[in-house]
Amino acid sequence: MDKNTENQLYNTPLPKVEMVKNFLSKAETLREKKLYKEAISIYLNAILLDRQDVTSYYGLGLCYKYLENYGKAIKNFEQAAKLKPDFYEAYYELGICHLKEGIPCGAIKNFVQAIQINPDNPNAILQLGIAHELCDEQDMALMVYEKLIENSPNYIKAYEHKSTLLMKLEKYNEACNTLIELTKIVPNYAQAYFGIAACLEKTGKQTEAQRYYRKFLQHNPQPGQANYAKTRLKQLKTKHSNYLSLV
Q1: Is 20 left (phi over 0), alpha (psi -120 to 50) or beta?
Q2: Architecture of the domain defined by 172-247
Q3: Rounded CA separation 164/133 (Å)
Q4: DSSP 13
Q5: CA-CA-CA-CA dihedral for 51, 52, 53, 58, to nearest 10
Q6: Which residues contact 10 (CB under 8 A, 6 or more apart)?
Q7: Counting C-beta atoms within 10 Å of the first and last residue's C-beta, which end of the chain has fewer, N or C?
Q8: Of 95, 63, 66, nearest to 78 (Cα)?
Q9: In this predicted model, what pLDDT tens digit does every residue of 66-110 receive, in sequence order?
Q10: Are 113 and 91 in contact (CB under 8 A)?
Q11: Could you say which DSSP state residue 244 is in?
Q12: Buried b / exposed e across 88-115, counting CB within 10 Å, b at 16+?
């Protein structure tokens, strides 16, 4: 091979597709290292080469989300979804960013779209319930959580959010039953026992409340909550003793 041919081979630029791949590889490595600003610059270089590259827009969206620039994140996730209409992750992240921006009603349509694409993933369904709660649509939120529990009976977060919402609505018996179901799935779940005790107190079942506070304490809770539970136990015992002395 003569010198001119050799130089020509070594100086030939990479095809555009390979250049985009190289940029994406570098950008994703930077993003994984949480160097988001540096990653953004590389993703933009990839987009300059190929404005139809879905991965670049999605990566940009993630970087802006982690930098809490939700407006720009939304813009890039929307572009990714436009280029790939069945992109579950893009719609899911759009919903999350709308929630972060304080636009829960705008998040609903994105979570619905994500669920239509992947109905078996419980995360978007849970977030849909949260979005309905934030839009003051409690009945819809409860319906979503109940459907989620029906479809994914071992999905702990669904029980947590359902019971918390029921307590906010002062439906303590229903909240208590939901938490009891949760303890059947996760018997050592301290917070569930704490919630059951609180619900039982609200419904006047003080003896049962004491039993669940004791169960809560058996699972080594955080010091602050442990102290609260011990205080409530002492107060409930005193109250019960006073009641018996009057009978």
Answers
A1: alpha
A2: Alpha Horseshoe (1.25)
A3: 11
A4: P
A5: 90
A6: none
A7: C
A8: 95
A9: 999 999 999 999 999 999 999 999 999 999 999 999 999 999 999
A10: yes
A11: H
A12: bbbbbbbbbbbbeeebbebbbebbbbbb
**Residue 218, Cβ density class (10 Å: 0-12 exposed, 13-18 middle, ≥19 buried):** exposed
**Does residue 243 carry a pLDDT above 60?**
no
pLDDT higher than 80, residue 235: yes
Taking only the tens place, the pLDDT of each residue in 7-32 is 443 444 568 889 999 999 999 999 99
Helix (H, G, I), strand (E, B) or coil at 188: coil
Query: What percent of the chain has pLDDT above 90?
Result: 85
Rounded to an integer, what distance in angstroms lies between the CA atom of residue 242 and that of residue 238?
A: 6
Token pair 């949260």 is found at 130
Whether the per-residue pLDDT at 4 is higher than 80: the answer is no
In order of 57, 92, 136, the CA distances from 132 in angstroms are: 28, 15, 6
Q: Which long-range contacts (CB under 8 A, 24 or more apart) does 11-15 make?
A: none
Structure token digits, residue 123: 């995360």
Average pLDDT, the chain: 91
The SS3 call for residue 12 is coil
DSSP H helices, 86-205, are 88-100, 104-117, 122-134, 138-151, 156-168, 172-185, 190-202
